[in-house]
Amino acid sequence: MILLEVESLRAGYGKIEIVTGVTLEVDNREIVAVVGPNGSGKSTLLKAVFGICRIFSGSVLFKGEDITRMPPHKRSRLGMAYLPQTGNVFESLTVWENLLLAGYDLRKDEMEERLESVASFLPELKELLHRRVKTLSGGERQIVALSMSLLRNPSLVMLDEPTAALAPRLAKQALKRIVELRDELGVAVVLVEQNALSALEVSDKALLMVSGTARFWGKPSELLEDRELAKTYLGL
Amino acid sequence: MLDVLAGALIYSNLLALLAVGLSLALLTCRVSNFAHGDLAMVGVYAAYTFSVVAGVTPYASIPVAFAAGGLVSLLAYLVVFEPLRGRADLVTLMVVSMAIDMVIRYSLHVYADLMQQWLKVYTRLFMFNDFLVEVAGAQVPGVLIASAVSTVALLLSLYMLLYKTKLGAAMRAAIEDPNLAQTLGINVKRVFAVSWFLAGALAATAGVFLPFRVMVNPDTGWSMLLSMFAAVTVGGIGSIGGSVAGAYLIGISETVLSYQLAGLGVSTAYRPLLTFAAIICTLLVSPRGLSGLWSGKGWWIRRRF
Description:
The complex is a heterodimer. By secondary structure, chain A is α/β, with parallel strands linked by helices.
């Protein structure tokens, strides 16, 4: 079943168009990797789908509902989560306070239930609960940020370069966890990633973005087999 | 001297309510709101109108002033500052707030003329009649008690809202990082709208106490801006607790020092000099103001939920 449908989306900031016509579909329980060179509009695409940058034209449908003009907080309540690359946790608060904010409109019993479920998926969370975020390492922060986005039990999680601030070993673990998100929690994932090869290895579909447009859309193996595209744009 | 101290306390109470509202505007939309003083005057005229029409004491009109100031402030936010949030720089926002100041101030002038014709009362340079209360054998002006009780009650309620409710948690989150807050499902526009309503309502409530001490007209709020900005700067820009502390420091020192200087033959016209001196000293000695002394950035958002 199609979860997210993006049709001819054009988006950017102010008067500048960064994403210049992208179409993609995300099904339930699949990982879509969005790869491409720096400045190709990958992060802007995620922001546009979540509604936090200007949309010039095109449409975004989530669970069949047109959400193109819907404010971001409503998208979040519909079951869509977005994890920005930076600024994805409240620095001055403790982990527990961050989680309370992430589920601020949940009832107490719902909150406890959700927290239990998130902690069973991310067991490290329990040890971090009373630490201040500013004392956490990059990997620990990602765990907190991911926990916050999972607290509302989303059906789609959009991750903007989740491995960017991580050491290679931790980056590998993070990607493994993204696969578990799909396999264990049944969540669909849109993954923007600089490390194209790692992302393509774990994904079900791939979108190659170049200068704001989709240069390739299809199976990751086909993108890797296309030597010209892989070499020119991904350096593989 | 006792009367001077009473005056200093009343003035500080007003300043505290005004400075907290000014801080909320700064925290939510990063705007140094030059129209904030006018919201106090909206409160004055709303209370004056209601007290004349209903034939009650202006104290009984505080809820009307609270609502009127809140609504005008909310309108300014929804029509002007929300569309500009995150899109205009600090200077543009400041100039825009000056324009709003003019719109509100001259609307109040028009309203004052209409009110004078309609209700046949003086609507410029007027004062409210106060009564005296006997406390421990001393005669104390009613406005001292009323302003102190209102200020404490409103600031405590604001504290409870910010730190004990979900809406307060959402407000603090939206202030710290609006983008992250909305990705977490918080309706940033709505919680900022609540902040702006409260900022205007607190200012308007402060305004009601003003005509008990001084003669007012629609420009009086504008003339108090310097003291409000001084309170916010001395307290620490962006700190609500600091604004309250700054308001009492500025309010008491301004009143008492200008009284002392008057005793030495120096004109009270130099009063703004004291306020400017307080701002300059703060920026030189502790640019983060009083709140910088007790903790680092975001101390007030870190408090327990």
